[in-house]
Amino acid sequence: MRIIRLAKHIAALAATLAAMSMAPRASANSLQDLGQSQPAALAAPHVFLVYWGPEWSAGFTSNNVTSAQYRNYLETFLQALGGSRYMGTQTQYGAGNPYDLYAGQVRLFPTEPPATPGIAAIENVVQLSQQWFGVAQPSAISAQQIFIIALPPGHGDATFAAKGGSACAFHNDTSLTVASEFFQFLGHPISPATYVVLPFQPDSNVCFANSANANSDAFGHGNLDGLSKALAHELGEVLTDPYLGSWRDPDVSGQDETGDKCNTGPMINYGRQTAGVWNYWAVQPLWSNAAGHCDTGIAGRIDNPPDVDFGPTLIGGAIQPKFVDFTNTGDADVVLGAPGATWSVDDRSVSFLVLGGSCPAVIHPGGSCRLGVAFVPQASGPVSAQVSLFAEGTPGAPPLAKVNLSGLGTSVPWLATPSNVRYIGGVPVACADCQNERSVALFNVDSFAHVIAKVALSPSAQAPQFAVVADGCTGQSLAPGQNCSLTLLFRPQSGGPQATVVAVDDDRGAHAQLLFTGDGTGAVAHFDGDSLLGAQLALPHAPLGASPVAKLRLTAQSAARGLSPGAITVDGPFAQSNDCPAFLAAGASCSITVTGFPTRPGAQAGQLNVPHDGIGGPRQIAITGQADVSFAHVSPQQLHFRKTRVGQHSAPLPVGIVPAENGSVRVLSVVATGDFQVRNDCASPIRATCRLSVVFSPRRAGTSHGTLSITTDAMNPIQSVALSGRGVGAGACEGQARGGQSCGNDDDD
């Protein structure tokens, strides 16, 4: 939806109507560039996010949604849009789809918005935000800016559904305001900007909540479906119709932009990884001329899982199930239907069993469906099978994915080991001095003698963790009941159960396989802390120049063995300190403190590196932070003193310094030139208005000029005030007040 201001477009509209009367009528359901605005589409868009109102800083809960939950849902969605196939559906109109469409630029605008803010109030926030981002991050500001103005609960334009209107959001631009005001900041003109007004979606029960997800959860799926739906709708229209006169359907009135044409289309979940974590958000289709219909450009996909090899398995032995995960690696839902999935087993040997699957009706992006399978060999020798996954109720359709199964059926062997030595035992991971050699006796359990011709480990992914270091069997002739000895080395490189197969051949081609297992043991390095969110350590927002701190704890999770943390380091504008010892005993913990030292405003990023010799190996934790900035407003910009006698002092005039953005400012220096003096009574830091006192002390008759220079630690660090006054001789003040004060009027005549 867009807000159209008639005065802006009346001339262009008349020209367009005239042109349309002479041109062939557009085909139905297609977008055309009507040529009423330039640029016709945003080729290099950049999104800025503005939270309007002090509630966003203080935090709130409204309609069962917290501000933190709302912000996380909104910001992760914006991060996931850039470079996506979903937004790629709009590049056919000349719109850009950069990966850094939204690069984390967030502003908390502290002023309380009106309950029903009008266009003038909204555009004032947009222009002030242009100033703020333009100074804080000048490289990010361009002529193709998009500002998302997020309103707190209970606030919204009169068109918003919760206020009795029909809209869930709208977009507009500031070109009229900029053209009429010629808005400038620090001497630089403010360019027009496009913006999206995003009221608090849970305020309305008609703005598409639970339209893609029937059930709500802590992330926001369900009750925040309308948030991502409305934002995607408006962003698609801003990209293709930024200044309300380009890509629209001239055959449809009122529902003519790329989002409007598909507003009632089916909702779908769009998914993507952000910060290494899969999330998904509800979106609507956008119109595609190329496709000829509403399109999301996205699709779910289930890749074939790795093959499953059960290895040698004794006929009639115990069933050892394995599990296979079918994961949706696409960027949209995969719909299996109820009850969830259909399995097809291609198994001529009848040796494999499907034990059941935990498949939901819908697999969201990044989600999995687990299938249990087992190998029950019916005969000796290698066998294989294939299991296919189908959507429920789609006969004749190709499978969504397949997995290959294999195994080796074995009969009662001629060679065996005592049951108590086939399990090698638990060995600490990467332990060079551990007693990890095990001697194993191999017994001939057949009724005749066998000559051992060869002993070897069967190739497998885990075989390098085992080795035969002493072979007392090869070349030996074993009568029935006799045995020989092998010594195996087990040196696990990862935690958990490990296995290998020892293959033994005799001189007549008889083959035997013996399974040996062991456990890699050790400590797991576990990290926790209030600021640790998944794989990210989030430092609190702080003013530029402050040093925010976040702490986390490292614990050696083990009942038997500790770990060595190694040299902990940090990258980016951060420093770390810790009390971790060279060796952290099993169950013990140590603390790591990360301190931020930002040198520029805005988003901060780095990485904490914690090497350790525990299970899983070194750990890297992403560090994030936000350095907030303040501006110094100085008023007035010039001072003019009344006539003052030479050698005397004028009455003092004030100059005010006010910090903006709800921050603080430190005054570093104040200097007055010419026949002027300044007194600085401003204590640092300034959190409210502070006043300087300027006095004019002329040394000669005539007009004097000077400059008051004020240096602060704000983002606009140097401010100046023009000073002027007129010195007069003693006779010019006859009949006027004495005592060193100004005299006469302030004219130069």
Write a concise synopsis of the structure shown.
By secondary structure, the protein is mostly beta strands. It is 11% helix and 39% strand.
Q: Beta-sheet strand percentage?
A: 35-45%
Number of strands: 52
First-to-last CA distance: 61 Å
Mass-distribution shape: elongated
Largest sheet: 6 strands, mixed
Estimate the helix proportion, in percent.
10-25%
Q: Give me the Rg, rounded.
A: 37 Å
Mean pLDDT: 82
Number of helices: 8
Poorly predicted spans:
3-27, 136-140, 182-188, 734-741
Indicate the structural class.
Answer: mainly beta
Describe this structure in words.
This protein has 8 helices and 52 strands. It is mainly beta. The chain is elongated and about 140 Å long.
Topology overview:
Layout: H1 6-22, E1 32-33, E2 46-52, H2 55-58, E3 61-62, E4 65-66, H3 67-81, H4 85-88, E5 102-109, H5 119-136, E6 145-150, E7 170-173, H6 175-181, E8 184-185, E9 188-189, E10 194-198, H7 225-240, E11 247-248, E12 268-274, E13 277-283, E14 286-288, E15 293-295, E16 308-314, E17 322-327, E18 334-335, E19 342-346, E20 352-358, E21 362-363, E22 368-375, E23 381-390, E24 401-410, E25 415-416, H8 419-422, E26 423-428, E27 437-444, E28 450-457, E29 466-471, E30 477-478, E31 483-490, E32 496-506, E33 511-521, E34 524-528, E35 532-533, E36 536-538, E37 542-543, E38 549-557, E39 569-571, E40 574-578, E41 589-596, E42 602-610, E43 619-628, E44 632-635, E45 638-640, E46 644-645, E47 653-659, E48 667-672, E49 676-680, E50 690-696, E51 702-712, E52 718-728
Parallel strand pairs: 2-5, 2-6, 6-10, 16-24, 26-33, 36-43, 37-43, 45-52, 46-52
Antiparallel strand pairs: 1-11, 3-4, 7-10, 8-9, 12-13, 14-15, 17-22, 18-21, 19-23, 20-22, 23-24, 25-27, 27-31, 28-30, 28-32, 29-31, 32-33, 34-38, 35-36, 38-41, 39-42, 40-41, 42-43, 44-47, 47-50, 48-51, 49-50, 51-52
